[in-house]
Amino acid sequence: MYDAELVTYLRHISSRETAVMADNRRLTASRDDAGLQIDPEQGQLIALLLRLMGARRGIEIGVFAGYSSLWIAEALPPDGCLIACDSDAEITQRARADWARAGVADRIDLRIGPAMATLDAEIAAGMAGRHDFVFIDADKTGYLDYYERALALLAPGGLAIADNTLWHGRVIDPDDASADTEAIRAFNRRLRDDERVDLSLVPIGDGLTLARKR
């Protein structure tokens, strides 16, 4: 959305990225799938919002190399808990190592397996209405289902956060009818019309949707 020079200025003038975060991001940048990682300014905004909320307990759907988890865990109090859901045991080993380096590993409960199973297990365990936030950044065709589980798990005033909701501009490309693009369009329409939440789609990174449960 912004040219490279302006992004460089933005990060130079405002970034609070730690050394561990920066190392994690730079190493991931060399991968073909580096686009799965959030931008630093997204992580910093999420962390600020969680601190403003006094968040203590939440869920992340889609861990990848653990960069977003670092931002989230750093924003939680020492006794806070982030349930981190991912299906890739290999890439999350690097995430674990960086969480340990940052001193936040004890705040993160990594659950390997289908995220929907983890969310349903939380509901079955009586955790509905007891989480402060849910961050959704996983398979796009699953967004609507993740969102509905998130609303069930969030306390009133809790925050659902979703990445990639501008989807690299593909949401407005009339020639793009791919499953992922259609899923993001449907997700955005659902939230636009959902009276259960207060809503803002922030044009930062690839689009970050914030939905506060009423």
From TrEMBL:
Gene3D superfamilies: Vaccinia Virus protein VP39. GO terms for molecular function: O-methyltransferase activity; S-adenosylmethionine-dependent methyltransferase activity. GO terms for biological process: methylation. Transmembrane segments: none annotated. Keywords: Methyltransferase, S-adenosyl-L-methionine, Transferase. It holds the Pfam family Methyltransf_3. PANTHER family: CAFFEOYL-COA O-METHYLTRANSFERASE 3-RELATED, O-METHYLTRANSFERASE-RELATED. This is SAM-dependent methyltransferase. It comes from Salinisphaera orenii YIM 95161.
